[in-house]
Backbone:
């Protein structure tokens, strides 16, 4: 359980709590900004965004984080105007506030990993703060405030990964099961325990541990939708940079998945969406020329399938150009020319997962050089899952990530090893009894 | 001596709570005005309430007004704790039954001084 420990700066309890609270605030802010962008009623959204920034501003002062304080202060000034209706909300406002969110999150992450806010001459916020102030003064125009937003995907809030929300009811159930366990132990320890009751107690212990295990598993289950939250934002940024138009469709967000697995799917999913937009979708002009709607569609869905959870990213783009992939693989020396001639389509898909494979000669800002499918595969396989790719020329590509429901406790046979009981390394359901 | 800390920020509640406990107070928390009001209705053992201004559900201003009008029999000191520096707002609050005002961020000494101004006990 628990991910590999992040090497963390010297962060005390109060700062840790601050990081968690502020991370939650930024998540909320991001959701509201997305809602705003999609034309939701702005009053409630703005109030929530205001509160997130305001709370942060109110608490940073105690902890001594001047970078955060300055940004939160500048953001709050603009948000007061918006909240009070003294300035309308338009695309440029939403964009700027998104940049603010990113920058705040980046600094929070610095604090979490290094224990300080970073060097100011390196991470200069003055451009962003100036833009915020200009907007407050009513000066239009939004010049380049830096390209911070490109790397949103990598900046998932660190400390959110260390905590999990559990329903009180589940906790209560756990508590009462522990009570049962203690009670059973007490009965075992009583001096007058006879053989007959040992069998009965053993049975009871079996029941309690089974329920305990099941309840703990349940407590670890989180909705996959948690992973979907940041995608609209990411997609928007990526699409803007590649000159593509994207419509997103989500389904199955309430599918439950073990918290640990959820975290492990986060990066692969970001890569997959990025790939789908950058490599999968055609430009609006190309799409028009092929009689497709200008806007590409990416469906992100999660569902159960034969005891596993599938998270799927499906685009309606150009599909994989097998000939080009083979040609490129030969060029990169991954396969021989003769091998290339005889290759089947399924094997072509495999080539895409080869480390360092890229059909792009130029390195794009979005997908980088060859970072992509091999990384996706490695990450998903580490989580005990698998990745597959399906593609139809001209119709689109589907990337499917399968993971087990949970990193369950696997039963193992106990063997007597010279008087010492050891767990044998064979995982076999039969051995449980 | 018991104090109720009302703020939507867990961090602030933790921080303020720690400071007050060092000064010999017992503390409890509420995360918005509505919950604070409910608490004060049933638990009459508080001597001090520290109240944030901007909170969801019920903000601090509405909450203090209602405490003073609906629970006027309580012998309770009310202190606002906020980043709001608007002097009109502060005056309005003081006119509406607020005893003191503390600006965020504040130090241990700031808090101590304010408590002493309200003649509340402070363990050194």
Residues:
């Amino acid at each position: 359980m628990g991910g590999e420990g992040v090497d963390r700066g010297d962060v005390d309890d109060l700062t840790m709590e601050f990081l968690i609270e502020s991370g939650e605030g930024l998540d909320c802010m991001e959701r509201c900004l997305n809602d705003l962008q999609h034309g939701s009623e702005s009053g409630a959204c703005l109030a929530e965004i205001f509160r997130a920034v305001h709370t942060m501003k109110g608490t940073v002062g105690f902890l001594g984080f001047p970078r955060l304080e300055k940004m939160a202060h500048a953001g709050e000034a603009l948000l007061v105007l918006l909240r009070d209706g003294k300035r309308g909300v338009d695309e440029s406002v939403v964009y700027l506030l998104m940049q603010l969110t990113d920058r705040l999150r980046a600094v929070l992450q610095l604090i979490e990993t290094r224990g300080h806010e970073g060097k100011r001459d390196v991470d200069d916020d003055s451009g962003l703060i100036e833009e915020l102030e200009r907007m407050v003064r009513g000066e239009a125009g939004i010049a380049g405030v830096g390209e911070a937003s490109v790397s949103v995907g990598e900046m998932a809030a660190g400390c959110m990964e260390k905590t999990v929300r559990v329903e009180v009811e589940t906790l209560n159930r756990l508590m009462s099961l522990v009570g049962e366990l203690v009670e059973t132990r007490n009965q075992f320890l009583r001096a007058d325990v006879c053989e007959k009751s040992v069998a009965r107690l053993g049975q009871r212990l079996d029941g309690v541990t089974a329920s305990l295990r099941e309840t703990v598993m349940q407590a670890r289950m989180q909705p996959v939708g948690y992973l979907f939250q940041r995608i609209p934002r990411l997609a928007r940024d990526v699409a803007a940079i590649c000159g593509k138009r994207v419509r997103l469709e989500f389904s199955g967000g309430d599918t439950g998945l073990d918290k640990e697995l959820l975290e492990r799917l986060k990066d692969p999913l970001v890569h997959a969406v990025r790939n789908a937009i950058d490599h999968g979708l055609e430009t609006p002009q190309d799409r028009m020329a092929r009689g497709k709607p200008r806007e590409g569609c990416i469906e992100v869905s999660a569902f159960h399938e034969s005891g596993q959870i599938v998270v799927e990213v499906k685009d309606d783009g150009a599909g994989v150009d097998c000939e080009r992939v083979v040609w490129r693989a030969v060029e990169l020396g991954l396969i021989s020319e003769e091998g290339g001639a005889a290759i089947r389509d399924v094997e072509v898909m495999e080539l895409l997962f080869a480390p360092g494979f890229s059909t792009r000669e130029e390195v794009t800002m979005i997908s980088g050089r060859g970072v992509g499918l091999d990384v996706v595969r490695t990450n998903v396989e580490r989580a005990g899952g698998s990745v597959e790719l399906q593609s139809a020329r001209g119709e689109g590509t589907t990337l499917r990530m399968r993971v087990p429901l949970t990193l369950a406790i696997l039963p193992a046979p106990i063997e007597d090893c010279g008087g010492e009981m050891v767990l044998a390394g064979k995982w076999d359901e039969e051995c449980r009894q | 001596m018991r104090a109720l800390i009302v703020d939507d920020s867990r961090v602030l509640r933790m921080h303020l709570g720690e400071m007050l406990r060092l000064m010999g107070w017992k503390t409890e928390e509420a995360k918005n005005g509505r919950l604070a009001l409910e608490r004060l209705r049933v638990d009459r053992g508080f001597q001090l309430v520290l109240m944030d201004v901007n909170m969801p559900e019920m903000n601090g201003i509405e909450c203090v007004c209602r405490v003073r009008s609906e629970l006027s029999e309580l012998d309770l000191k009310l202190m606002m704790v906020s980043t709001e520096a608007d002097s009109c707002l502060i005056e309005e609050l003081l006119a509406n039954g607020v005893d003191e005002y503390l600006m965020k961020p504040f130090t241990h000494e700031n808090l101590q001084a304010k408590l002493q101004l309200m003649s509340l006990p402070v363990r050194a």
In short: The helical segments of chain B are 10-22, 33-42, 60-70, 87-95, 108-117. The mean pLDDT of chain B is 90.
